[in-house]
Request: fold
Amino acid sequence: MHLIVPGEKLFMEETLKRFIAAKQSLYDNLKQWKKASGKKIVGCHPMDIPEEIVHAAGMLPITLMGFDGAITHATRSLQPTIACNILLENLEMCLNGTLDFLDGVIFADVCDTIPILSDIWLRHSHHVLHHLMVMPKHLNSPSSRRRVSEQFLRLKAAIEKQNNKKISDRALKHSIGVYNQNRRLLKRLYDLRLCKPGLLSASDVSAVVTAGMLMRKEDHNQLVEQLLLELENLPVPTSDMHVKLIVSGSLCGHCDSVLSVIDAQGAYILEDDLYIGSRYFTSLTNEDIDPIEALAQRYVDDIPSPTKFFDANAWANYISNMVIRDKADGIIIVMRKLCEIHADDFPCIQNKLNNGGIPCLMIEIERAGVSEQDKTRIQAFIDMLGVQ
Amino acid sequence: MTWYMGIDIGSAFSKGMIVKDTEPVCFHILRSGINYRTTANLIRQELLSRVNLSQNDISDTVATGSGANNVDFAGRKVSDIICTARGMNSLYPQVRTIIDAAGQSTKLILIDSHGRVTSFVVSEKCAAGSGWFIEVIANVLRVDLNEFSQLSRLSKNPVAFSTSCAVFGESEAISRVAEGIPKEDIAAGVNKTTANKISSLSKKISLEEPCTTCGGGALNTGLVQAIELELKIKLLLPPQPQTLSCLGAAVIARTSSS
Reply:
């Protein structure tokens, strides 16, 4: 897992290859790391897991974000028909043995089907640590933050019991610092992309973020810093002729196939509002207060999310402001089929964008691939904003 | 004189057109087959031989369609929705809505007076409502698309299909054949189901008249009639409805060059 040899000079492409390799050889790398380090690995089902608590316990938290292979075990007879494919894919990996190397798994009930997934998982897996967090949905009540803190304390206690070792405040603060550093570095990368659109393809940026969800944050920080050093010295590519977009959505999983089509069309993504993107790292955690309180505060004060209800228009306003602030030509919203929390918010988002005269395209994806019809939609949308 | 070429590699058929200055000169249509690159080259050869030109005489070529990436000799690629809009606008500047009934999908395209796309919707990824669905049922009835279209117009009692899914629809058509239902009623039923699907798609967009239709589906007059009935509109029919996208590609090549 130590991907950078000290003093080694890498060119940007070589650095990028390491992110891509970390993403592609995910399980082999993790299994090797576990064998070599003797440490435990915990799978975090998206979204909203306070990974810092797992990290502070000396374990490696990784994000379970589905896979592209055939689903043969996690059939619809096991999962309700309303379950999205990310849930099916993660359950498949649990049932077919891919995730046997995990020592635990953590869920937050971000949608109605997660508790059901958690129950099925519990019956079929042998993971020693199995924890479901029941999070408050309405965060505009005075008790919300307290209830979030209680859930985080429950998680902390479950991990401590499992490891038979307390997690000290000092360790937790250290982990918060490591995660904040990661968020700052990724923010720098995003700021750089905004200033120099086209410097990195959307697929490359996605690989950078994905890799960080699957490796030690300390290693990822080192790798991102290396990449930033290389990128910051590169000249700004000419970008006037390219359509500039914002991409939003794809909660819980990646949408690499959509990003590849956008890249192939020559459009630039200025900023994103994707789960495997800015949604994962935007908010920092306060390092000066009680660590559990700080994590709860981050959860409550985080960027608008369909899993956290404050105001029906909050997410729509957030997305709309992003398009306006960045002077993007339009926005592509990627929605996972059967993602009820996203579907609930979409009409509000669509109205907001329509009323603001912001060109918007919604693409519904089922699994990793993108259909020919969706390719046509994306190409036509980009051409509509550009060549014509 | 300046010559431009537009090539549209679709999922079922591939089309090419040469435009001289502002006028379409010739077109050629082939089944796309399974090697789009070969098909694109065959279309180019045929077009060039018809006007007795070489590739060097062509100022610019634009490729479009799902197989556009296989057109190695094209200067660039543009989405077929944009090309169809430009092609239609060059023939009928007054048109505001295009119903493109293509092999793989159906598209409804809204355009302005300059042929710019203002909005569009595309059918879902299944074959429901596409030309492919009609082709599947025509195979069940052992007729070609031309005969299918004529049969459909003879029907007095179209069969009601319970599905627009091409797979289930094929089974249903076989059942109707087994029941002894006349071919014309099955053909008309399929056209009606397809028109229903297009009507459902039109709910996502505000149709503006004048409306027109193109794509291979526009050659099926039974389907055109069914769409007119379903949407309660009159459709303008271009002379070569399959070639609008390649015409638009050639027009874009010309506009970009000038």
About this structure: The radius of gyration of chain B is 18 Å.
